[in-house]
Amino acid sequence: MTESKELQVKDKQAVSTPAEQTRPGPVFTPVVDIFENDNEIRLLADMPGVKAEDLNIDLRDNILTIVGDVQPWEKGTETDLLIEFEIGRFYRQFTLAETIDQERIEAKLADGVLSLTLPKHAKATPRKITVATA
Amino acid sequence: MVISRDFFFPSWTRGSLFDELGRMQQQMMRLSEALQPRLFGHPTAGVFPAVNLTEDKEGYYLRAELPGVKPDALDIQVSGRNLSVSGERVIETEGDGVRYHRREREGGKFSRIIGLPTDIDAEKVTAKMKNGILTIHVPKAETAKPKQISVA
Predict the structure, then answer these.
(1) CB-based contact, B15 to chain A, within 8 Å
(2) What is the DSSP string of chain A?
(3) Do B25 and B64 belong together in one domain?
(4) What is the DSSP letter of B37?
């Protein structure tokens, strides 16, 4: 069922200018899966190193913004021998086509993966309309 | 080899022609390097997962980003100076009636061996997984630790 291919290294995608940056340090685009069914939109984002308290999710005017900060973990006494990836802020924005019930949004962060459930408004869920024939 | 070259390229152009080809090859290499800028200018081994290796006086710290990998799906082994990390990242498939808008996260198997510069204390290697970051602490062997020499 699950494909067991070899994983390849992918460079973390750096964002050039997400907005006016006032903080130093690189900004990366997290890779995401987004899928929807009739009732909700689900979003999974890989954000390794982000703690729950450093994660910010914002939805306004149908624009969903995800920002996660990674705190540096190295102790001051460590010297670098091999650096293959950098850490920095994760940032990504999405425009949502559907109206989302903001009250019922659920976010979960486990093992560095953010899982976001965005329930659609009741009026946006498709309803089968039967046409009565006279 | 020499015969065939003489056959295809008359001797009077050979020197200048190969000089010219060499120059072109160098220019092409410079061009292709310029077209593929390394993001950070860090050389990578190109093997998943990308790791950061640091050291202090006592030992080495190996860190890798492995979001969504459960600790029991990891296999970490030490032999000699080599540290091997392998495992599998499983992306759960969703049920029917689901429409995908983005599918960027990838699952699969991985295996990597990292050679450490000095002897290590294999008995005291510890590993932990937190927020999708794997940290392996590898203490150096006593013989590999720096010794402070006091001057009398």
Answers:
(1) no
(2) ----PBP-----EE-S-SS---S-S-EEEPPEEEEE-SSEEEEEEE-TTEEEEEEEEEEETTEEEEEEEE-----TT-EEEEE-----EEEEEEE-SS-B-GGG-EEEEETTEEEEEEEBPGGGS----PPPP-
(3) no
(4) -
The per-residue pLDDT for range B42-64, each reduced to its tens digit, is 566 677 888 999 998 889 999 99
User: Across chain A, what does the average pLDDT equal?
Assistant: 82
Tokens coding B145: 């630790």
Which CATH number is B61's domain given? Answer: 2.60.40.790
Residue B86 shares a structural domain with residue B134: yes
Using the Cα atoms of residue B46, residue B51, residue B55 and residue B60 in order, give the sign of their dihedral. negative
In a domain, B43, yes or no: no
- The residue of chain A with its CA nearest to that of B91 is A2
Q: How far does the CA of residue A103 sit from the closest CA of chain B (Å)?
A: 23
The answer to whether residues A112 and A50 touch, using CB atoms and an 8 Å cutoff, is yes
Hey, is the C-beta of B128 within 8 angstroms of any chain A C-beta?
Answer: no
In a domain, B150, yes or no: no
CB B103 within 8 A of CB A33: yes
What is the model's pTM? 0.72
Q: Kindly give the parts of chain B with pLDDT less than 70.
A: 1-15, 33-45
Number of domains making up chain B: 2
> In order of start, what are the domains of chain A with their CATH numbers?
26-72+84-124 (2.60.40.790)
